[in-house]
Design a protein that fits this description.
Layout: H1 17-21, E1 36-41, E2 47-53, H2 61-77, E3 91-93, H3 99-108, E4 112-116, E5 119-122, H4 126-133
Antiparallel strand pairs: 1-2, 3-5, 4-5
Length: 136
């Protein structure tokens, strides 16, 4: 890719100090080269996601972008996102804790669909997700 402005930190680790501390030397790959890793760190400094790839495997930047948007959505709306979630797809409402609470919650949130007392989903419009998370 050419003419792309990178707006997040990248590190070069010639001494391999960071690679060793973060467990990036993958057994059987190389003792002198670190595997490729992506660490998604939130504004509070908490590592939220780590994705490791061996040297022989390319990274999927679309998936990395999806992960960041999904994490921001989960935080902004207090929900969880299922595998392969994309903005506009259903999100998972955190478990209600009991049947009674789920039924009460269902009555108060008509946009929710409950499949069982412990598993409910709801829609958040793609536009709402993107306008909320892209502000950050």
């Amino acid at each position: 890719m050419k003419n792309v402005e990178v707006k997040f930190p990248l590190i070069e680790d010639i001494t391999m100090e960071a690679a060793k501390k973060y467990g990036m030397i993958q057994p059987g790959e190389s003792s002198t080269k670190a595997g490729r890793a992506v660490f998604v760190i939130d504004p509070k400094g908490i590592i939220r996601t780590i994705i490791y790839c061996p040297l022989s495997l390319g990274r999927n930047f679309d998936e990395l972008h999806r992960v960041v948007i999904a994490l921001q959505t989960a935080d902004a709306f207090s929900v969880a996102t299922p595998a392969d979630w994309r903005p506009g797809d259903d999100v998972i409402v955190p478990t209600a804790g009991s049947c009674g609470v789920a039924k009460d919650r269902m009555e108060n949130q008509r946009d929710m669909t409950c499949y069982d007392w412990f598993f409910c989903t709801r829609k958040i419009a793609k536009e709402k997700v993107l306008s909320t998370v892209l502000k950050k």
